Amino acid sequence: SLINMANSMRSEQGTGVLVQRILKRLPTGVNAVIESLRNPDEVKALQEREGFVLIAVDAPVEVRLRRILRRGRAGDPLTAEQLRLLDEREALDMSKSGIRIKECMGMADALIINDDSLEVLGSRVHDVVQRVK
Fold this sequence. Notes:
Elements: H1 2-13, H2 17-25, H3 40-47, E1 55-58, H4 61-71, H5 80-91, H6 101-106, E2 110-113, H7 118-132
Parallel strand pairs: 1-2
C-alpha cells in the first residue's frame, strides 16, 4: 500500500515530492538520516542541499531473506526467488515516477554491505561517515 501511494504521489505531484516534503520540515544546518530513497529525482533534490552525502546500504539476497523470514511480516517474500523477483521489479522501473533503486544506489557516494551484526554495521557506517565528511 505504501509503495503504491508513494508511486501515485510521485506520478501526480512530481518525482521529488516525498523529499521536498521532508526538506520543508528539516531546519537548515541540521544533520539528518533519510532512508529508503527510491527514485533518482529524490536523490537529485537532496543533492541540492549543501553537505548532502548518499550512502547506499545493501546485503546479499540470502542474508536479506533470513532477516525477512525472522521478521515474519505478512506479504513479505518467502523464498530467494520471490525476493529476487521483487528486487528486479524495484531495481529498474523505467517509468519516471517509479521505483528505481539500482539507479539510486549508483548515485551513492559510498556503499556499505550489511552482511554481519549490528555492531559491524555500526562500525562500517562510522568508517564511511568519517571518510565522506
